[in-house]
Design brief:
With 284 residues, this protein is α+β, with helices and mostly antiparallel strands. The protein is built from nine helices and five strands; from the N terminus they run αααααβααββααββ. The chain has a five-stranded mixed beta sheet with strand order 1-2-3-5-4, with helices on one face. Strand 2 (181-190) and strand 3 (193-200) form a beta hairpin. Helix 1 (8-28) packs antiparallel against helix 2 and helix 1 (8-28) packs antiparallel against helix 4. The chain is globular and about 55 Å long.
């Protein structure tokens, strides 16, 4: 068993790994390169916003804007070379932060709770909402493996829940809810896999406004570029968050599902193998 760590040095190290992957697929000219680049840079933006590193954020936002302005049908070879150069520049500028020792903690909760709580508190202030944040199963040790990658992607859930999911104080009170919205992350160790629940007690998803069935609606929500928001804000609206989480789960050979109660809340369920050698079979 290995204790997991989530701090600035961890975010930098994971960001360098992710950017290296983007540079590789951009150089090879793979069809999914632009989509993956957007996912990665959007993830980085959410994580570095917590640390208030304006020097990093300026470059990350500039790179995200560049990729968002690119069209997959017009992503020419010259644009691809420029994308490699810009991504490489961010990689090397981040690499200067990669030196230093990691903080040691005793549990999942110790590792992720401080950064998650700070992110939620910051979002609450910017969105003028009352939001609590908690972790269940925080004293659990995860099996050894690269779980930092998973933690890095939690930022998408936090931003989506705070902006999309949770209602304003007035709206919650009118529905008979508590004024304070709730965001919760739960960890469960089950035999050969780890189950993670990402929950909020907000609006849930009104799937009838999206598709003919709930399953079809969530398939759309997991697609790149699809968003229920008509206005893009600094928190959400690009249609990247859920697709990035879905891509993470698929990459780790896991299962991504949901528990949705319109008007009461949404739980995203990530079931991930505890080892790369384990395959999780979907129910028939």
């Amino acid at each position: 068993m290995s204790h997991q760590v989530f701090c600035f040095q961890t975010v930098v190290a994971e960001s360098l790994r992710m950017l290296s992957g983007v540079i590789h697929i951009l150089r090879e000219g793979k069809p999914e390169a632009l989509t993956e680049a957007k996912r990665v840079v959007h993830t980085l933006k959410g994580n570095f916003a917590y640390f208030s590193r304006e020097d990093v954020m300026v470059e990350v936002v500039e790179l995200e804007n560049f990729f968002c302005d690119c069209s997959s049908t017009l992503f020419t070879t010259s644009m691809r070379y420029l994308a490699v150069e810009k991504t490489h520049n961010l990689y090397w500028n981040l690499s200067i932060f990669s030196q230093g020792s990691e903080l040691q903690h005793d549990s999942i909760g110790d590792d992720y709770y401080p950064i998650g709580k700070a992110m939620v508190d910051d979002l609450a202030v910017r969105l003028n909402k009352k939001i609590s944040f908690s972790i269940k199963g925080g004293a659990t040790e995860l099996p050894s493996g690269n779980w930092d990658e998973v933690f890095t992607y939690f930022t998408h859930f936090l931003r989506n829940s705070a902006d999309h999911g949770l209602e304003s104080e007035a709206e919650r009170l009118s529905k008979g809810k508590k004024a304070e919205g709730k965001i919760e992350i739960s960890f469960f160790i089950k035999h050969s896999f780890v189950e993670i629940h990402l929950s909020d007690d907000g609006r849930g998803v009104k799937w009838k406004e999206i598709a003919a069935s709930e399953n079809e609606a969530f398939k759309k929500l997991f697609e790149d570029g699809y968003s229920t928001r008509k206005i893009i804000t600094s928190e959400s609206g690009l249609g990247v968050g859920l697709s990035a989480l879905n891509a993470l789960v698929q990459r780790r050979k896991g299962i991504f599902s949901y528990k949705n109660i319109p008007g009461r809340g949404l739980t995203l369920v990530l079931v991930l193998p505890s080892s790369p050698n384990i395959e999780i079979k979907r129910a028939a």
